[in-house]
């Protein structure tokens, strides 16, 4: 989180993390598509020919709150390919919250696990406590045939404390719910760590309401 007192600006950084081709870029593309055009930032993507992020994607969202503060939410994706670890680590720096985008396909179980492990290590390397950082998990590609069952996912979810979302990012399903879930967790955490309301008059519920309005619809799970 960055707070610029002079400009009365709060910047929140959210990172979409996960193995290669799990659908991180697709999530940002869907969010971009679902947002009303007014005040919508430009989606910056840098991809190779075969859908692979080389560096990162960035979608900035900016709006004024009732407290007279400008809030900027910066959404980043990391490149999932194993070889890009140093870039992932760089993008993760200063993250306020992470959405882990897992691939639901059974053959991707190991890739998900390896990526989750590397997320925890990279957070630790940045001096961030993985168990304290706001984190939500999305199981994407629910439309494909050979995926882990919903029951199995729910069972795993009941063992962890993270919220789980099911999605088909290419159809835009579950994308907003994941994003609003992540934003809610992150703002609640920032409020408890920094007392945004008491110190700056910033009510995080107000920020969430502004975000919901940006989509022009009421997101389900948020
Ligand atoms: N069937 C299906 N395909 C999907 C879904 N989400 C993404 N894809 C496809 O999976 C491929 C990879 O998606 P990306 O969003 O580029 O994946 P990424 O996680 O950004 O990949 P890296 O940048 O390499 O880390 C693309 O061809 C997408 O169209 C989904 O929900 N269902
Ligand atoms: Mg990508």
How far is the first residue's CA from the last residue's CA? 21 Å
Poorly predicted runs: 218-222
> Which ligands occur here?
guanosine-5'-triphosphate, magnesium ion
Q: What portion of the residues fall into strands of 2 or more residues?
A: 15-25%
The overall pLDDT average reads 92
Structural class: alpha/beta
Please give the CATH architecture: 3-Layer(aba) Sandwich
Global morphology:
globular
Helix-strand topology string: EEHEEHEHEHEHHH
**Count of DSSP E strands?**
7
Q: How would you characterize this protein structure?
A:
This protein is an alpha/beta fold and 222 residues long. The protein has a single domain, classed as 3-Layer(aba) Sandwich (Rossmann fold). It contains seven helices and seven strands, in the order E-E-H-E-E-H-E-H-E-H-E-H-H-H. Strands 1, 2, 3, 4, 5, 6 and 7 form a seven-stranded mixed beta sheet that branches. The radius of gyration is 17 Å and the shape is globular. The two termini are 21 Å apart. The relative contact order is 0.18. The model is unreliable at 218-222 (pLDDT under 50). It binds guanosine-5'-triphosphate and magnesium ion.
Write the layout of secondary structure elements.
Layout: E1 2-4, E2 9-17, H1 24-34, E3 57-64, E4 70-77, H2 85-92, E5 97-103, H3 109-125, E6 135-140, H4 150-159, E7 163-166, H5 175-194, H6 196-200, H7 204-215
Parallel strand pairs: 2-4, 2-5, 5-6, 6-7
Antiparallel strand pairs: 1-2, 3-4
Helix pairs in contact: 2-3, 5-7
The structure holds guanosine-5'-triphosphate and magnesium ion.
The site of guanosine-5'-triphosphate has 22 residues, from α1.
């Amino acid at each position: 989180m960055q707070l610029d007192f002079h400009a009365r600006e709060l910047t929140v950084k959210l990172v979409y993390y996960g193995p290669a081709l799990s659908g991180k870029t697709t999530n940002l593309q869907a969010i971009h598509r679902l947002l009303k055009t007014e005040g919508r930032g430009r989606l910056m993507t840098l991809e190779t020919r075969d859908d692979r992020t080389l560096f990162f994607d960035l979608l900035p969202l900016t709006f004024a709150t009732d407290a007279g503060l400008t809030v900027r939410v910066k959404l980043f994706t990391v490149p999932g390919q194993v070889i890009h670890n140093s870039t992932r680590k760089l993008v993760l720096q200063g993250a306020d919250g992470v959405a882990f985008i897992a691939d639901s396909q059974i053959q991707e179980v190991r890739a998900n696990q390896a990526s989750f492990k590397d997320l925890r290590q990279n957070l630790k390397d940045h001096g961030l406590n993985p168990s304290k950082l706001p984190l939500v998990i999305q199981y994407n590609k629910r439309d494909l045939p050979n995926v882990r069952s919903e029951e199995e996912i729910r069972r795993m979810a009941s063992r962890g404390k993270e919220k789980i979302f099911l999605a088909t990012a290419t159809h835009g399903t579950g994308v907003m719910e994941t994003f609003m879930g992540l934003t809610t967790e992150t703002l609640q955490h920032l409020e408890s760590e920094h007392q945004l309301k008491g110190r700056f008059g910033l009510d995080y519920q107000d920020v969430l309401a502004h975000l919901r309005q940006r989509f022009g619809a009421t997101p389900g799970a948020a």
